[in-house]
Specification:
The protein is mainly alpha-helical. Helix content is 75%, strand content 0%.
């Protein structure tokens, strides 16, 4: 296959690649934080957990290209959110599993309501700041 027939790859440094990946995952996590704060439904919570776990993995994978203090700070800020989202998600899964049963679910629904409040309480302080700008600055990622 001659060069014009196939895509030419433009060399990129691993650091550039890492920054692009982390940048996209930062924005995805922020989007999911906002979405979950707004809707708080089971799918939003699941999406939030997935986005945070992916971001944590990228911060770990590309640690050598990112300032340790900024990485640790982001993880610290999101730790309470991921824990609260995990509890809410577990409750959602249980409710889904028991939906067709004859089990009385009112207590579980009340618990779910409280878990949603706890999750919102963990998310709200993050949304009151300029997360994207602050996190990008700390990690040395240019503004979008």
């Amino acid at each position: 296959m001659s060069p014009p027939e196939r895509m030419k790859r433009v060399p990129t440094s691993m650091r550039s690649y890492a920054m692009r990946q982390v940048s996209g995952l930062l924005e995805a996590a922020i989007k999911e934080l906002r979405n979950t704060a707004h809707t708080r439904d089971a799918e939003a919570i699941h999406g939030l957990r997935v986005s945070i776990r992916r971001l944590f993995q990228a911060l770990k994978t590309f640690a050598q290209y990112l300032p340790e203090e900024a990485r640790d700070g982001i993880e610290d800020e999101l730790r309470a959110v991921i824990k609260a989202a995990g509890r809410a998600r577990d409750c959602d899964v249980l409710l889904e599993m028991l939906a067709d049963s004859d089990v009385e679910l009112s207590v579980l629904h009340q618990q779910r309501t409280e878990l949603k409040r706890e999750l919102l309480a963990a998310i709200q302080p993050l949304l009151e700041t300029s997360l994207s700008k602050r996190w990008r600055s700390g990690l040395g990622i240019p503004a979008r």
